[in-house]
């Protein structure tokens, strides 16, 4: 068709939304309101002035249980012989050597190449209602998969779900200025590093496991083909399914709008919980290659950037702090509930 033919046909008509288009927008708005209301209603049922005591007791119980798991890990570390990478047997294995990985990252403050790092910037608040340390920045990094090398060879380690024992370093404002990289990190939050005499002190906490440095690993050694391609437990499988589902508006009806909105809400929730339940992405390697991973038999899985002796001390501290703290939280919650019930009965 020539330019003249187009000109003869007249101007191109403007697009005007039809009745069905506006109706679909109304469907989407109504569905979003319903999904939002259901979410808020569910949150109010789960978290309120009555159920909060149950959640506090449950938190204390899980902290108490976590302490016993850490103590079990400590016993496993102290009672298992260290194997060689080239001759370790299938099953629970303890390995020690140097850690290597592609795609390492420099820690934000120390600027050292790391397999893992975590950094927090906290500032003290003096106001009575919010008195205490308040987090201003939190960042983490991990390589996902690494290789442990000793004098016999290398073995692949899939890091998902590992209990990390890292090197911890803290910079406090009352002790002076941190490195220049630390000052830049604080400036990225819109704050300034305070003077040592400030009434609002600040601290930077960096935890790291260095690359090309001593590494200790205890986990389940298996062939790659023995690792399932999808998670077996319910919550990771559910969250992975929500993340992998792309919301689609497959019709002009309220039912289609409700499905689209609910899928988008579940995907948003799964992204928020991603830090708690990482995605299930086993290494893409030869099926017969051996891999150290968390396993499916509730065995210990520990990755430590320190020697075995220091890892045992760190696990002992975690165990006793969690056992004592969890027990105190459960006992305190029960005392408050009994006190409130006694007051209500009187």
How is this fold's topology laid out?
Layout: H1 3-8, H2 19-46, H3 51-79, E1 91-100, E2 105-106, E3 113-125, E4 132-142, E5 145-150, E6 153-158, E7 163-165, E8 167-172, H4 180-187, E9 202-210, E10 214-223, H5 234-244, H6 254-272, E11 290-293, E12 302-304, H7 308-345
Parallel strand pairs: 6-11, 7-12
Antiparallel strand pairs: 1-5, 1-10, 2-3, 3-4, 3-9, 5-6, 8-9, 10-11, 10-12
Helix pairs in contact: 2-6, 3-7, 5-6
Major sheet: 5 strands, mixed, barrel
Q: What class would the helix/strand composition place it in?
A: alpha+beta
Q: Strands of the largest sheet, in order across it?
A: 1-5-6-11-10
**Radius of gyration, rounded?**
27 Å
Element order: H for helix, E for strand: HHHEEEEEEEEHEEHHEEH
How is this structure best described in words?
This protein has helices at residues 3-8, 19-46, 51-79, 180-187, 234-244, 254-272, 308-345; strands at residues 91-100, 105-106, 113-125, 132-142, 145-150, 153-158, 163-165, 167-172, 202-210, 214-223, 290-293, 302-304. By secondary structure, the protein is α+β, with helices and mostly antiparallel strands. The protein folds into two domains: 19-48 and 230-267, no CATH class; 49-229 and 282-345, no CATH class. The strands form two sheets. The chain has a five-stranded mixed beta barrel with strand order 1-5-6-11-10. Strands 2, 3, 4, 8 and 9 form a five-stranded antiparallel beta sheet that branches. Helix 3 packs antiparallel against helix 7 and helix 5 (234-244) packs across helix 6. It is globular and about 70 Å long.
């Amino acid at each position: 068709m020539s330019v003249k033919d187009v000109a003869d046909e007249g101007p191109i008509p403007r697009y005007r939304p039809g009745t069905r288009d506006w109706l679909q927008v109304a469907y989407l708005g109504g569905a979003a309101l319903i999904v939002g209301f259901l979410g808020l209603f569910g949150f109010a049922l789960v978290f309120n002035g009555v159920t909060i005591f149950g959640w506090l007791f449950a938190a204390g119980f899980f902290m108490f249980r976590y302490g016993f798991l850490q103590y079990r890990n400590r016993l496993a570390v102290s009672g298992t012989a260290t194997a060689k990478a080239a001759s370790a047997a299938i099953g629970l294995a303890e390995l020690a050597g140097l850690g290597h990985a592609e795609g390492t990252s420099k820690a934000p403050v120390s600027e050292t190449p790391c397999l893992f790092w975590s950094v927090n910037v906290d500032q003290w608040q003096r106001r009575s209602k919010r008195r205490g340390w308040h987090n201003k920045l939190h960042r983490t990094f991990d390589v996902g998969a690494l290789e442990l090398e000793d004098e016999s060879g290398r073995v692949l380690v899939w890091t998902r779900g590992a209990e990390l024992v890292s090197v911890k370093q803290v910079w406090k404002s009352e002790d002076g200025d941190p490195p220049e990289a630390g000052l830049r990190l604080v400036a990225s939050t819109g704050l300034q590093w305070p003077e040592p005499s400030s009434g609002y002190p600040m601290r930077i906490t960096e935890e790291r496991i260095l690359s090309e440095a001593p590494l200790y690993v205890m986990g389940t050694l298996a062939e790659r083909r023995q690792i399932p391609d999808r998670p077996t437990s319910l919550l990771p499988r559910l969250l992975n399914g929500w993340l992998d589902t792309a919301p689609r508006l497959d019709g002009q009806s309220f039912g289609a709008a409700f499905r689209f909105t609910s899928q988008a809400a579940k995907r948003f929730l799964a992204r928020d919980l991603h830090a708690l339940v990482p995605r299930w992405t086993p290494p893409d390697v030869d099926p017969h290659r051996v891999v150290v991973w968390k396993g499916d038999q509730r065995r210990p899985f520990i990755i430590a950037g320190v020697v075995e002796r220091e890892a045992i001390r760190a696990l002992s501290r975690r165990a006793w702090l969690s056992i004592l703290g969890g027990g105190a939280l459960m006992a305190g919650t029960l005392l408050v509930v009994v006190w409130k019930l006694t007051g209500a009965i009187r």
